[in-house]
Protein 1
Amino acid sequence: MLREITAIVKKDLKQAKRDPRFLAPSLIIPFVFLLVYSIMWTSVGGGESFACGLVVQDLSPEADDMAGIIENMVSTTNHTWFSIERYDLETASELYQSTQLIGYILIPEGFGANISSGQKGIVILFINNANDDVVKNYVHRIEAAVLLYNQEAIAPEFDQSNALIALDETLFLPSTPSNLAYMGAVGLLLSLMTCALASQALVTATEFETGAIHDMLNSPTSRLAIVIGRTIAAIPRSFLVLLITTPVITLSLNVFPVGNLLTLFGILILTTLALVPLGELIGMQARKREQSLLAAVLLTVVGFLGGGGLAPIGLTPFSLRVILLVLPTTHSIGLWARVFFSDTLLGLLPSALYLLGTWLVLTAVVTHLMKREVERS
């Protein structure tokens, strides 16, 4: 059987070398996602950090106190997503109008005089509300600054070290990845998933169109050897796309793995093993190249989006998460993101066993369908 598997592997690799078009979906889909996500975030606050402008026109002590609270407000998190930069009004307005500045705070002239005379001082916030998450990031912090001033929590008279409550954080990851860093990391996995699923679906559908599948199935080679051999051949074929996507994504987004490289390599192997028989199944059912490619791409995209491709699966509502955990892509993305950003092996076994079990079950299903195909022909 080992000799049969080796022969199948050599045959499939030669076929992939003759027809490298299987790489196309694997390159197009991840970079399209990265392009859209990059445009979406860099146009609404930068994704990595949200810089807010501060314009102080009033020269009163009250204005200085308010500006000090805004600039030096004690953060309740270790994140550096939010920063304050001072501008003059003309510069801040120009940057804001050109969308280079997502928002700015204006402390106008007369702010201190109004407060001294018992009237209400007004702080004006200009904000581009193109993204709800960004707006909340700004508004909540500025509201907190206003609340601190109204409660006379002004430094240095209000000493935070004497506060009754303090917050001590314990973060799971050594550093918090930005949205673009997370997307870049899972984009690498997406390229492999697309190649494993779509390329095998194309190979199988092509063999049905040419009739080569029946020659192979009617040969003395066992059905199980055929399935295992084709799966093994898909591993280097799927890894080939990483030679292109890895340097491009890691260098352009400056995102590099923190976890163990051998563990990440093992996750890629398990992902390929789980998805190749699924691609075989798609090709056997569609039997047409165009239909099999469309089905494989749609399944990859749906599995990627639903399985944590744009945000960790833990942020998904529990009722939906239970359904999404049926997909092998969900487990692959969860394993990949966990190890990519942290040097830990904790909590990996259940998803790893699920991917391994998926491979065994789908291999048995495809082997059975091949047997039925021979009986029909």
Protein 2
Amino acid sequence: MEKLITDLCEYVSEVAGLSILVSGPLSVSLPNYLAGSYDLYEISIGKERFLGVALKSPESFKPVAFEKHMSKLMDAVDVAEFWLLIAADLPSYTRRRLVARQFAFVLPWRQLHWPELGMAVQARKKREPGEISDRFKPATQAVVLHGLIESDDEPASVQALSKRLGYTPMTISRAFDELESAGLGCIITRGRERLLSFPEGSEALWERARKYLRTPVRQVRRVRLAEINASNLPLAGESALSRRTMLTAPQEPVFAASRREWKQISRTADVIPVQDDGTCRVQIWRYEPRLFVSDGTVDPFSLYQSLKDERDERIEMSLDELME
């Protein structure tokens, strides 16, 4: 338990830039079922006081039972008005339930959700926004998509994201810088390694990041479907939207390709200027469209960005359905 508290202090100081003082464990007379489940601490941050509740057995933790226990613990200990749950780790589905209930909790080096301090992770004191463009670079957008789609609340290293997303470590490191300047994510340094997480969850990340996201589509070209290997390309545009919603599929199929793939396609396929029998459209993307393919279509967030400026009521309604 001593290591957990040490990690708590270091983690809060690292990600929030706050000095934290922890006293305890407190000597309190509790029923056996409570004493066997929790160690209690007094936590001070500036003038604020909190009751720290450290889990002894995280594997048996249940949010509903914990809520009942807290009323008894707060009655037994006159330390503070607010409390903080502390654990070495918890399953991701349990964390989501805690966030939904607005329970304050810290999992050192994994996640911090502390509404009473105004931190549903405010990742350390953020740098003043630096030279950040109106829209993220493609690699930065890919990192955000990874956080939206694949994040399991575990911090990801530069090397791990480099391998997963297909960019160089230097490019991913620059993406970290861009995210930090935008105030997105929690970036910590452990030794020589930089780690990124989005502990606020995908819904909050989407709401905060979407203003920086751009359409992934660079160009659109029309070719004959018979001249390409469509089975290797994910559906995109209205074709992908029709697969994911009730929208009727377009007469002309739409696919997504990377620039490298398009170069290969263009060697054997002629560009057709207008729609004709047997034609399809190929979107040429800023980043690899197959990074987060699901059910043969591009990911929903990129799909949304590619169509959000369309002035077609059918598409607008289907996009709302997509993001529900």
Protein 3
Amino acid sequence: MPGSEDRTAEILARAEAGDTEMLLMAESSGVADRARWLLRAAQGESETGSRRLAQFRPALEEAARGGDADSQNVLGGVLLALDENATEAAAWFRKAADSGSNEARRSLGYLCVQGDGVAQDLAKARELFLAAASEGDVIAAHNLGVFCLEEGEGPPDLPEAIHWLRFAADGGVDEAAAKLGDVLSDLDRDEEALFWYERAAELGHIAAMLATGCWYRDGIGTSENRVVAVKWFLRMLEHHNFDGVHEVFQIAPLMRDSEIREGGRLAGREPEAEKIIQMCNSGAGHPPPHGGSVTGATLISSSGYSKMSDSVD
């Protein structure tokens, strides 16, 4: 979830500083939930989170040994993410999966795909992803959709992949929406592809923001709309990515000042839009060097639009 690591770190820091409300929030959850919360903070490089997790780990291990499936799953996550011990992680994921944990099923499925900590077993991976996805786990649904596209000896199972990617995208998984856009684009279903690229962009997927902006700029899957293109290019600044600004400078000479302003307004980036207008009108307008890189693999095709290619999470 975007920003969750920052929020967790903030709560931990405020709790340690004596904020009673935050302290109660940090201390009131159950063993598995608290450990999951601390793990998220530790993965976000929170020193407080890492220290608290180390202190809390014996309680987590005790709960896991006692048969609590959620604790077994979180312990597997700690072993995999922090200890880099995939073999022990897989053992705990398996215990939790056998008890019905969907998080553990998809985590073990991922290890089965990679052959990490366990022998590679694609059939088992698919079984685990399907079991979790069928019970509503949207991350497992995303993984299953990607699995249907990329694994196996035969051609991709496109109908199955589209079904599960759509399920995950509808559940708010930005990577699934972006991947679904790629699949539909490859099938020349451009209007549908743009819909899912834009959905991914709305969910915060940076490469999808770039793709959506380029498609509106070029009129792919829709009528040409430079104002909406500017909106999505400038929205990339929310993630400290300046590739979109470069694209705005490219199309600004083809636009009226009012159109650039409207794109900036839609993006919530009026000051940046005004600065671009000033630079262009002063004769100083030129595409600056790219100030950031797009998150994820981005392929810029010869037709000028962007596509994402994402792996199983």
